[in-house]
Every structure is written in C-alpha cells, then in structure tokens.
C-alpha cells in the first residue's frame, strides 16, 4: 500500500512508532488525530518513500501537553518528503506562547533536499509551533513556499465558495494578532529570499476586527 488515510486518537505517536513496520512503502500519509497527548518519539526508523504528509491535530481545545516541536521526528524520518500540510486549528490556544518564553530550542541540523511546500493551517503563537517552523526554514534547502494561516473554518468569500467567511470569535481574532506578531518577530527574518512566505489572515470584509499586516 502506498497511500493511507487514518483517523483516531493519539494517532501521530502510533504512526511514527508502529506504522513503518507494516507499511514501509508508503508514499502518501494523511492522519487525523484527536487528543494527542504523548509527544512524537525520536526514532532511527525511516519512511524512505514518503513524499506527501498531512497531519491534522484536532481537539477543542487541543491538549497543551503535546509539544508541536516533537513533529520534527516525522520530518527527519522522511528524507523523500516533498509536501507537508498541517492543520492545528483550535478554538482556544492552550499551549505555552512564544511570548511567555522566547528562548527557542534547537535541534541537531538535518538537511532536507526534497521538501518544497509547507502549509500550516491554524498557525498560532504556540512556542513549539514557532520552533518547528524555524527548524523547517533552517534545514530545508529545497523549500519554495511556506504558508501560515490563522483563518478558522472552511468558508471563504475570496475563494467564492461562499458569500461570507466563517465566523471568527474575538478570542480567535486576538490570537490571530499574536500570530502575526510572532511571525514578524521570530520567523520573517529567517525566511530565505528563495522561499515565498504566504500569511493567511482574517478577512477584512467579513471579520469586522480583521486587519492587514502583510
């Protein structure tokens, strides 16, 4: 089997620690995990053929005990990875903010020569998420496009899928402001000139408290 879609609780940990033994030839993996609590383990095993990885971490709110930065394990285990899509959308950001502790952790360098596109939906100011993004920028020599989006929901007026975007609460809009500040403070100056940075913000037409900073 070369393509797999899975959905269950604590799936990221399972996929990293157990899946390889039964499906070593995976090329496309789409996992949806709810209530992920245990961090993704660092292991020597490799997904040698994995090219496309989608990780959706869901939960209302998502467990603040999970360290987004531990997802580096999946990246380092996938030397052929070309696209990475993550969805970490939350109604409430419960993780430690990078503005609470701005001392960013470092991981040993591990060069990625095939990863071209990274998209993170639901991007927020969680320290581990900022650290993961900085790690990707530092170690991915092939990266062409990095998309960071804080937009909540699926309806988008500018995509003409609806006449109005999904409603965003004041709490989500407030976190969106912190997200943009986090990008400017910790990420923007680390983006190489060869990489296109796209920041998806709240809609200025549908979200009355929306804003335009990029």
Automatic annotation (TrEMBL):
It comes from the Eukaryota. It holds the Pfam family LRR_At1g61320_AtMIF1. Transmembrane segments: none annotated. Residues 1-204 form the At1g61320/AtMIF1 LRR domain. This is At1g61320/AtMIF1 LRR domain-containing protein. It comes from Arundo donax (Giant reed). The lineage of its organism: Eukaryota, Viridiplantae, Streptophyta, Embryophyta, Tracheophyta.
